[in-house]
Amino acid sequence: MHDLARFCCQNTGCTLYGKRDAGNLSVCGHYGKQKQFRQLYCNACRARFSEREGTPLYRCHLPEPTAVSVLDHLAEGNGIRQTGRLVGVHRDTVVRLARAAGVHAHDAHEELVAFSPSDPRSPVRREVVLRG
Asked: 10 Å Cβ neighbour count for 42?
């Protein structure tokens, strides 16, 4: 069985919300056409959620390689319609995945870079350097 250390509780009301490797998660079932995804259970708050919850692939019905290919094409700078043609999916699917990935990236940025260092190239910083 795969390691559960990289997952955390997705219930915002849980005392262990967002804490990885807390030892509170267990696998309580599988779902999907081939039962390929795990359903996780939090022992602290008794919530159940998908292992994909909190990721851009949550509720994505495309095969994982196809969804990743869509995101790769977008990251390379391809447009929505071009990406749809190259991967073979509808442009609305590309937009949906792009929005989900954008929200996820924004949230991850806000969590990981809460206090960004000041940029030495900014105009405010240059004034301080020139005065000092």
From this structure: 23
pTM as predicted: 0.67
Nearest C-alpha neighbor of 96 from the set 61, 64, 51, 65: 61
Low-confidence ranges of the chain (pLDDT < 70): 1-2, 114-132
Taking CA atoms, 16 is separated from 7, 9, 23, 68, 92, in Å, by 11, 6, 10, 30, 36
> Could you give the CA distance from residue 98 to residue 52 in angstroms, rounded to a whole number?
16
The strand ranges marked E within the chain are 25-31, 37-42, 48-50
Of the candidate CATH numbers 1.10.3470, 3.10.450, 1.10.10, 1.25.40, the domain formed by 54-114 belongs to 1.10.10
| Residue 100 CB contacts under 8 Å (≥ 6 apart), including other chains | 56, 57, 58, 60
Which tens digit of pLDDT belongs to each residue from 83-103? 999 999 999 999 999 999 998
Beta bridge partners of 17: 9
Q: Where are the domains of the chain?
A: 1-53, 54-114
Residue 12, token pair as written in the block: 């915002």
